[in-house]
Amino acid sequence: MSELTDILLWHAAHYPAMQPQDAVKLIYQNEFGCEHLIGDAQGMLEFLKQEIEANTDRPRVRSWDELGNGLVRLHLAGLKPTQAEAIFEAMLQTAQRHQGREAAFQMKLKELENLAQRGKMPFDELTLKSWLTNYPGGSVHHSGVYRQQENPAYRVILQAYAID
Question: I need a surface site. Which of 10, 92, 152, 154 has the fewest CB within 10 A?
């Protein structure tokens, strides 16, 4: 099995609400990291502080989830707003050091299709193909079902910068 297959299967087991767009988001993050998020630095830092503040009282089940390619989703639950600058710096460093390729992303989507075809994902092949037919390209938001059940709050960074 490939690293991505292992990661997709792990996420499917731990996040059963995962829909096709959530799996595609994971693959996008695996390939491209967080480069699409870096824009208005001051605005992004302020938003990060607010999101950490909103999740300070949530229990921290895990520090991070592996995405592959040396990347992780650093969970914001249980962190303190004073950690926002270090996390934002980790995002900036990640965006500078990690570059993805569209061809590799497309190959990884085929790997996801294969898993769905074999019944290994929480959604079937037809549901995935239907979603991919309308896929706008690029990064997508988590599905409503996933957001409601999992309440995701994280940032994608290189594992080397992860806070335990």
Answer: 10
